[in-house]
Write a structure and sequence with these properties.
The structure is a homodimer of 144-residue chains. By secondary structure, the first copy, chain A, is mostly helical. Chain A has helices at 4-19, 28-35, 39-51, 76-84, 87-90, 108-124, 127-135, and strands at residues 56-58, 64-66. In chain A, 40% of the residues are buried. Chain A binds a DNA duplex (30 and 30 nucleotides) through residues 3-5, 25, 27-29, 38-41, 43-44, 46-47, 50, 57-65.
Chain lengths: 144, 144
DNA sequence: TAATTAAAGGATAAAAAGGTATTAATATAT
DNA sequence: ATATATTAATACCTTTTTATCCTTTAATTA
């Protein structure tokens, strides 16, 4: 569904949100370890997220990544778009450029429904929401 | 959503179904041209589909690909599984192996609903269905 | 049976995604 | 000021996906 890069990004965002309370910031090492992702690869992804202003960081001792209040309002859709692009919004399942409401592919309308639900879910869930769910103890970000 | 290979495979299956009426079989060249896919790549994909018994072929002059009555009953899900595997059925959006009903990730239940709809659509639509839709003149497999 | 046609199969190459290592820059504590 | 911890930036490597080419095999037909 999403790229590996995108999966790592979402998990990293949620993990940081959950653990960087107050003054505490989260290191790449910790993110990688706790989200079960390759360290150096995560480092690269975090830079990307930072450039796109989805997350913030501070260098040096006690540095690391954190989310400010605004960042916590990012939705999963925001992350997916930042990493994988907006294909979910625009592309036909069969990859047909000419597939539209007027000239639909055989599965166009059914697929539009599926995508609508998917997008709704992606846009509804903010990082803060995920955070709260995990804090409730009923949801997890477990690796294995 | 699906791999390029898978998109080509679905388009090829539908195109052959639609055009190999009676004794007529469809060549790789024609499939590639009409579905806007790279010829030699399509050739590989067709071999794959054939090995998995989703399509049939005959060599030599007037040879090519065709679908028998049974083949026409293949669903889009069958093609997706043959080419991309059954990840749609089994994998968590965040790639978490431990994500289950008992230990769900923050978006598990919402995503299960989305996947259920997607799978329903994939399993409902047979190649014959797609074929009939296109013949009705209201649906298309247009390239551009 | 020779010539022709079309798929099958194997080998390779180009591009994209995924992953690693190294060095530079920066902030903090002492 | 200096040592140190930590991200930033960059360059490189590996694997997977996508795409191409060439040779072989099978079927048809003249």
């Amino acid at each position: 569904m999403f790229s590996k890069t995108c999966e790592y990004a979402i998990k990293a965002m949620i993990y940081v949100a959950q653990n960087s309370t107050g003054e505490k910031r989260i290191s790449i090492k910790e993110i990688a370890r706790e989200t079960d992702a390759p360290e150096y690869f995560v480092a690269k992804i975090m830079q990307d997220l930072r450039k796109r202003k989805l997350i913030h960081s501070i260098k040096g001792p006690n540095g690391g990544f954190y989310l400010n209040d605004h960042d916590l309002k990012s939705t999963i859709a925001d992350i997916v778009i930042a990493i994988d692009g907006n294909g979910i919004y625009t592309e036909c399942v069969l990859g047909l450029k000419a597939c539209t409401e007027k000239t639909p592919c055989p599965v166009h309308f059914e697929f539009v429904e599926v995508k609508k639900n998917l997008i709704k879910m992606l846009e509804k869930n903010t990082i803060r929401d995920c955070n709260e769910k995990i804090e409730s103890g009923k949801f997890f970000l477990k690796k294995e």
